Amino acid sequence: MASEVTHNVVKFVGYGVVLAAIVAVVVWAEVLTREHRTSHPVESLEINISGGGTYRLADANSLEQWIREHGIYTDSMTLGELSIGELERTVLNHSAVASANAHVDYMGHAVLDVELREPMARLRIDGYDMYITEDGFLLSTVADRTAPVPVITGDYTPIFGPQYAGYASDVARDSIATLDRVIQELEDAKLPHYRSLDANDSALREALSESVSKGLFMSDAEYSVLVGDLERRKTAARENHAAQKRSIEAEIAMLTEQQQQARIKQRNLRSANADFEALIAFLKDVEHSTYWRDEVVQLMLTGGSSDAESYQSMEISFIPRRGRFVVDLGTATELDSKLSNLYRFYTNGLDKIGWDKYSNISLRYHGQVVCR
Fold it and tell me: In this structure, what DSSP letter does residue 74 have?
């Protein structure tokens, strides 16, 4: 029995020693790692780039310069001073960067994997100069780099500002959500006025319920005076009630009108966003077609304003590489069908009668190609 107890004690002591040794090794390794990170310099920064298409808006040198301009000097940092998260966030602030993933090894070699956005068109209207990517992201131009993509001009009014970077759909979504809150706040602002209407009605009922009775020793003349005074008070109560009601209802009507304007703005934003998404889809069709990618040189947009009482739909036309005409596509509807009709007209018409015969080719009407 004593031998068995002794054996168990020895076994547990042995486990304790092993555990203590493991803990000591882990702590020692952690101390060494911390000391290593504190003192060991970042030996190098390697930037690997993917995406961006043939004409990239950034390269390893420009991104490294961007990182330095934003206060991260990897060549004079230790591993402990370099924040991987900050490095990734800094690179992601570059408009051409879609994603970034960084890591650093024990020897101090930092690696930054970057995926670039690929421009699909360039929006150059009054006050605007930005690229549009295939997924609808809007990014600012880069001073020393230009992508040879179709240019969009015209008097189009976007729903986003000239300095905006991001998705146009996010602007529409956030603006619509803001207007939802405004509409609800205006509805809440009506509640005190509804309560005032109820109070006004109660005051009138109370005034109209008042009555007088003839006293035992009251003369007919005195009673007539009391009745006259009561009628005058009731008349005044009715007039005051009507005036108060008109005033309160005018306040409610004003709030309702503001709600209606907000709903119109929401409707216009949805229409504007749908038009812009149709434009993106059209640009993608052009980008993915060897034929149209070579043919579409410049797009011209009109309309798009979401501030007016009635939304002015976006209309699209473009200047082709061949010919001396303008192609009018009309509104941003059935654009794939319009391109198909145009292609048939190109191959069955212009190839035979000549490319300089017309100055304008319109496909704005369903199933029709109108030339002049």
Answer: G
Within 10 A of 287 (CB to CB), how many other CB atoms are there?
18
Work out the average pLDDT over 359-363.
Answer: 94
Q: What is the pLDDT of residues 163-191, one digit of tens each?
A: 999 999 999 999 999 999 999 999 999 99
* 271 touches 290 (CB < 8 A): no
Helix, strand, coil: what percent of the chain each, to 5?
Answer: 50, 20, 30
φ/ψ (deg, to 5) at 213: -125, 150
Q: How far is CA 304 from CA 67, 122, 136, 167, 336, in A?
A: 38, 17, 16, 17, 20
Q: So what's the pLDDT on residue 29?
A: 44
Q: SS3 of 197, please?
A: helix
Greater model confidence, 196 or 366: 196
311 vs 200, residue with greater confidence: 200
Contact yes or no for 115/251 (Cβ under 8 A):
no
The percentage of residues in the chain with a pLDDT greater than 90, rounded to a whole number, is 66
Question: Is the separation of the CB atoms in 169 and 273 below 8 Å?
Answer: yes
Q: What is the pTM of this model?
A: 0.79
Residue with tokens 């009309």: 330
**What distance in Å separates the CA atoms of residue 234 and residue 237, rounded to the nearest whole number?**
5
Comparing CA positions, the residue from 180, 184, 124 lying closest to residue 156 is: 124
pLDDT band at 27 (very low <50, low <70, confident <90, very high): very low
Q: According to the model, what pLDDT value does residue 33 have?
A: 43
Q: In the 8-state DSSP scheme, what is residue 346?
A: I
CA pair distance 41, 76, nearest whole angstrom: 7
Query: Nearest CA to 126 among 147, 154, 163?
Result: 154
Q: How far apart are CA 62 and CA 66, in angstroms?
A: 6
Query: Distance between CA atoms of 316 and 330, rounded to whole angstroms?
Result: 6
